[in-house]
Design a protein that fits this description.
The complex is a heterotrimer of chains A (355), B (264) and C (274). Chain A has ten helices and 20 strands. Chain A is of the alpha+beta class and 355 residues long. Chain A folds into two domains: 236 residues, P-loop containing nucleotide triphosphate hydrolases (Rossmann fold, 3-Layer(aba) Sandwich); 108 residues, OB fold (Dihydrolipoamide Acetyltransferase, E2P) (Beta Barrel). Chain A has a six-stranded mixed β-sheet, sandwiched between helices. In chain B, 82% of the residues lie in helices and 0% in strands. In chain B, helix 9 runs antiparallel to helix 10. The chains are: A alpha+beta (355), B mainly alpha (264), C mainly alpha (274).
């Protein structure tokens, strides 16, 4: 089922949680709402679930073109996984999953055997058949998470909404579960929206990412688009480590210390902020023309998947350079060495923007 | 050394103020033997007093149970003007002297009170009659269920209820299947406290009862009458019944506390 | 209404009108109506009537005894209740769970039962009265009864506070060179003071209005062992509602002051904790 959020605003007292937010989710897509805490992502998810109503006079949430406010509750069929799971603490795992079936009006309620078959199938799906009689308090965090998911899936939801589904779990369990969730989604193709503040999670799991900041949508796009083509400094900064340079636009080029970068179309004389990811910097022993910054090596950390080099530039910035081990072999450096740092790619944002 | 001293002081203090009174009740009750005890407990006036006590509790406690649920729901789930005033009012019976409670009901339902004459003309007696005792019992037991439920409902939050609604449960289904089971032990505990208080209320009931033996005497009032007639064995015999109820309350409380601690 | 939920929003709890309506109606009938009757009666009194009843020599003596005996009882509870709370929180000993459960006995035991039991113990010829402690029918007897009914308050507020104390506090003080006594006075006691004060105030407030347990042990001698609630009762037995009302206003004024005090203490403790 497709979902459209159209010009929705939501305020709590004086606090604006959503300002004129619009997003579209296609049927069968898995979309991540990504942003720092307080950016409005959870409010947006709860609004899509119908748990919050948009401010009067602002827009609406549409399920397949029909406004949510006109859709009777039983027809909405929203599967929601709460951040802290909200499992019914007095019910067993089995009864938690069966709940959505048991509360149906008699006419559409499955028979007792029908309920048992369906719950058993779901418990198999989450690999917890043998824990069916446990209470939520007797489960680990990852198990609770899976029960919450199975419970949401039991009602055959038209949309699956997950609020920081892996937020409360250990790093290791989190990794396993998100791969599992992605596989599950590929099998079931339920339209899904997941809220997260972890950019790796969003990049790994989602078909598309909605980056939110301060109650607004900053950018919507595929993981590749938002990572490689960030629409704003905020998006670039949020999706991974960046090195920041301060520069000025001079005759179509942005100049930082000894480096000039081509940046056509920028207003002459404007102050610019230049953002470069650590893997987009390279280290040279010597340099030609205005292509590199002089710097001194402060620290080299070669244990890990990449070699991480910290340098202090002539303009006073501390920079991080990530090199592959192969590249490092070609130009090995040590603490205290004089080197040149050369940006291969950079994004220029004009100064009026602030994080 | 310090430990021994502190434990000795504790033992002396609690022995003097807890164990000794308890021993005195049972000791005095049985001082003249089981026969006298049994006779005092099964005497018609004693039985009538016990019956009235049970009856007053049976009316007052269920009403306050419903009230407690409603008040706790309103206070824990909504913000509204006058909310803190409501909470203060719920606590009020705990702060008012029982004798003053009795006086207040006299001023409403007594023959010189607001509603008394009007009710009297219609043949309805409230004070010096059973309804007065029930009203006084309602007043003194009003806070307990609400006070147990409010903090628990607030602490448990609304997420489980929201989850139930999103899974398709209606409002009543959610209340019956999710909210109520989650607070059942606190609810039971509130009821136990209410019952204990209802059985034991003395001052307020004493004012509104009129002490008509066999008709408006509750168990505590019956104890007072026997005691003032110097029938100590009889007074203590009836007192053992109330003391056993009290001990039952404490045991139930301990059991419930264990249960909730285990569940965490 | 602004506060009611729209049925179409499962995020809003339902039943606001129903629950608040019932709760407000019930409170109105069971509590506000009687309180209003008392207030109306009180405001109908002339100053002369009020002064005659509430400021008579007998009334003043009753207030004095009520307040002093309540203070004495709360103080006894503060000292010994603190020790008992400490023992229950820090030491393990045989029968601890039984003792812990029994602490609430004064809450659960009907006051009339407590009253006759204490009288049997402390009257001359009684269990302890015969051993040179004939406290019944003296002001000391009143203090005994009020100590009994206030006993759980201090223990039940201080005990969890002791259990929640960060063990690092004591260890840090000891490592910094403080003696055990010094650690207790300058580190532990200040941390426990809010709980102790709250327990003291609650025991005091409860004692102010107590009737059932005192009526038997005090002997009810006017000017000597008669507490304020007893004086109200004797006015009621003479059908002197005006006099009883005047005394009740004074007594309730005192209780409310205590209630406000306790709430303020609570609020302060919570602020400091948060």
């Amino acid at each position: 089922m497709s979902i459209e959020v159209r010009n929705v605003s939501k305020t709590f007292g004086d606090f604006a949680a959503l300002r004129d937010v619009s997003i579209e989710v296609k049927a069968g897509e898995l979309v991540a709402l990504l942003g720092p805490s307080g950016s409005g992502k959870t409010t947006l998810l709860r609004t899509i679930a119908g748990l919050e109503t948009p401010d009067p006079g602002s827009g609406d949430v549409l399920f397949e073109g029909r406004p949510l406010s006109e859709l009777p509750e039983p027809e909405r069929k929203v599967g929601f996984v709460f951040q802290h799971y909200a499992l019914f603490r007095h019910m067993t795992v089995f009864e938690n999953v069966a709940f959505g079936l048991r509360v149906r009006p008699r006419a559409v309620r499955p028979s007792e055997t029908g309920i048992r078959d369906r719950v058993t199938a779901l418990l198999q799906l989450i690999q917890m058949e043998n824990l069916a009689r446990r209470l939520p308090s007797q489960l680990s965090g990852g198990q609770r998470q899976r029960v919450a998911l199975a419970r949401a899936l039991a009602i055959e939801p038209r949309v699956l909404l997950l609020d920081e589904p892996f937020g409360a779990l250990d790093a290791r369990v989190r990794q396993d579960l998100r791969r599992w969730l992605r596989r599950l989604h590929d099998e079931m193709h339920v339209t899904s929206i997941l809220v997260t503040h972890d950019q790796d999670e969003a990049l790994e799991v989602a078909d598309r990412i909605v980056v939110m900041n301060r109650a607004r949508v900053e950018q919507t796009g595929t993981p590749d688009e938002v990572f490689h083509n960030p629409a704003s400094e905020f998006v670039m900064d949020f999706l991974g480590h960046v090195n920041l340079f301060h520069g000025r636009v001079e005759s179509g080029r942005t100049v930082i210390g000894g480096v000039a970068l081509e940046s056509p179309g920028q207003p002459e004389g404007a102050r610019a902020r230049v953002l470069v990811r650590p893997h987009q910097l390279q280290i040279e022993r010597a340099v030609e023309g205005q292509t590199a910054l002089r710097a001194r090596v402060v620290r080299v950390q070669s244990a890990g998947p990449v070699v991480r080099i910290e340098v202090r530039s002539e303009t006073g910035e501390t920079l991080r350079v990530d090199l592959s081990h192969d590249a490092y072999e070609l130009t090995p450096v040590q603490r205290g060495d004089e080197v040149f740092v050369k940006p291969r790619e950079a994004r220029v944002f004009l100064e009026d923007y602030s994080i | 050394m310090m430990r021994a001293l502190l434990l000795a002081v504790t033992a002396l203090f609690l022995g003097l103020f807890l164990a000794l009174p308890l021993a005195a009740i049972f000791g005095e009750a049985l001082r003249r033997g089981w026969g006298v005890y049994w006779a005092a407990v099964t005497e018609p006036a004693a039985l009538a007093a016990v019956r009235l006590t049970l009856f007053a509790a049976a009316v007052a406690v269920p009403l306050n149970l419903v009230f407690g649920l409603a008040a706790a729901w309103a206070v824990a789930r909504f913000r509204f003007p006058g909310r803190s005033a409501l909470v203060t009012l719920i606590d009020l019976p705990l702060a008012v002297s029982p004798v003053v409670t009795g006086l207040m009901y006299m001023l409403v339902f007594g023959l010189q009170g607001w509603l008394g004459p009007w009710l009297w003309e219609r043949g309805i007696e409230v004070v010096f009659a059973v309804p007065g005792i029930i009203l006084a019992t309602i007043f003194v037991t009003l806070p307990f269920v609400a006070r147990e439920l409010i903090p628990l409902l607030e602490e448990q939050g609304e997420e489980e209820e929201q989850a139930a609604r999103l899974l398709g449960a209606g409002a009543w289904q959610t209340f019956r299947r999710v909210t109520l089971p989650n607070v059942r032990w606190a609810l039971l505990y509130g009821v136990i406290l209410s019952v204990a208080r209802a059985f034991g209320e003395f001052g307020a009931v004493s004012v509104v009862s009129g002490h008509i033996r066999g008709r408006t005497n509750t168990a505590p009032l019956h104890i007072e009458i026997l005691y003032n007639e110097y029938n100590f064995a009889g007074a203590f015999a009836v007192a053992t019944l109330l003391a056993l109820t009290a001990l039952g309350t404490l045991a139930a409380r301990a059991a419930l506390e264990w249960r909730t601690r285990e569940a965490v | 209404m602004r506060f009611t939920a729209r049925v179409s929003n499962p995020g809003r709890a339902p039943g606001f009108g129903l629950s608040l309506g019932f709760a407000a109606a019930w409170l109105g009938l069971a509590i506000l109506l009687p309180v209003a009757a008392l207030a109306a009666k009180a405001s109908g009194l002339t100053w002369r009537e009020f002064a005659e009843a509430a400021l008579s020599e007998r009334a003043l003596a009753a207030y004095r005894l009520t307040v002093l005996a309540s203070l004495a009882a709360a103080a006894l509870n503060a000292v010994f209740g603190f020790v008992a709370a400490w023992s229950l929180a820090r030491y393990s000993f045989p029968g601890k769970r039984l003792v812990d459960a029994l602490v609430d006995l004064p809450f659960a035991l009907p006051t009339a039962v407590s009253g006759i039991a204490l009288t049997a113990i402390y009257s001359s010829g009684g269990w302890l009265g015969g051993l040179g402690l004939p406290l019944a029918f003296t002001p000391a007897g009143v203090v005994v009864a009020l100590t009994f009914i206030g006993l759980p308050f201090v223990i039940r507020t201080v005990q969890p506070a002791i259990e929640d104390l960060d063990p690092g506090l004591e260890e840090a003080a000891r490592l910094l060179g403080a003696s055990p006594a010094r650690t207790f006075v300058s580190v532990l006691l200040p941390a426990l003071r809010p709980a102790l004060l709250t327990g003291f105030a609650m025991a005091f407030a409860r004692a102010l209005g107590e009737y059932g347990s005192v009526v038997f042990i005090s002997g009810n001698l006017p000017l000597k062992t008669e507490i304020a609630p007893l004086l109200i009762m004797s006015r009621l037995e003479q059908f002197d509602y005006a006099g009883a009302t005047a005394l009740s206003v004074v007594l309730m004024g005192g209780s409310f002051l205590m209630l406000f005090g306790i709430n303020a203490l609570d609020a302060r403790a919570r602020r400091n904790a948060g």
